Amino acid sequence: MSLNVIMLGPPAAGKGTQAKTFARDHGIPHISTGDMLREAVAAKTPVGLAAKALMDAGKLVGDDVIIEIVRGRLDRPDARKGFVLDGFPRTVAQAGALDGLMIGRDPLIVVEIIVPAEVLVARACGRRVCRDCGTITTAAQAACPTCGGKLEQRSDDTEAVVRERLRVYEHNTRPLVDYYRSRPTFQPVDGNRAPDAVANGIRHAVETAQATDVAHRR
């Protein structure tokens, strides 16, 4: 049985860090649409340039672009045993498209990471990203703790942009909770805790979702 997980939650909720950790611990790929979009931006492809303008303004990239990116990624051999999706789906339309992509696969397990808005703003404005290796840390660090590289603030981590991203999230992405809530594989997790505690909460949530799904099928 494959392990197919979606991490839901607002910007700065810790989805990326937790998704990477969970994927590594379970030997499945971490699939981040944000990373794939940033690669396109860095390469200055037409899609990347269009995406950059939207991300800098705190807007969402169009469903058609994102869906095609995800479709291609899920078709790769390493995703057959499962995956962790981080940053997708973000809209009900994307979720419907993903359900179509999941036909013939094991069920999706949906984990929602919950964090208060003011905590999210403080987290985002205080984080920094290594220019060389991509490690995310805080402004308190003088250099990257992983490689010693220079730390930078992402253009979409200013307070004005973060608050706009949260507004967009509430308007466009929050309906996903209603879309998935009735499924036996949906589980909320308190994200306003230390990272290790959140990771433990996610592991427990996934195990609960798996057991609930098995019981639901009987």
Task: Please give a quick description of this structure.
The chain has 218 residues and is α/β, with parallel strands linked by helices.
Give a structural overview:
This protein has about 220 residues and is an alpha/beta fold. The chain has one domain: Rossmann fold, CATH 3.40.50.300. About 50% of the residues lie in helices and about 15% in strands. It is built from nine helices and eight strands. The strands form two sheets. The protein has a five-stranded parallel beta sheet with strand order 2-3-1-4-8, with helices on both faces. Strands 6-5-7 form a three-stranded antiparallel beta sheet. Helix 4 packs parallel to helix 5. The relative contact order is 0.18.
Overall strand count: 8
Average pLDDT confidence is 89
- What is the CATH class designation? Alpha Beta
Given the structure, what is the number of helices? 9
Overview features:
218 residues, alpha/beta, five-stranded parallel β-sheet, three-stranded antiparallel β-sheet, 16% strand, globular
